[in-house]
Amino acid sequence: MELQVSGTVCPIPVLKTKKALDSMSEGEELIVIGDYKPALENITRFAEEHGHTVVSAEETENGFKIIIKK
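Structure for SirA family protein, as requested:
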């Protein structure tokens, strides 16, 4: 599943990530793409604190891309 959070600032990207993860099954991966770079750290921290695996988290030319395994 891919989640686009570009054009939003915290806490919206984290809340949208939580909502998406809540709708997914264990073992599925969520790709979060956004342009508000502080959200990279906030989403990563949220995912880890809630028992999800952050497969990768990287800054990109236009923002960030995070892959989270539920």
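Residues 17 and 43 are 7 Å apart (CA to CA).
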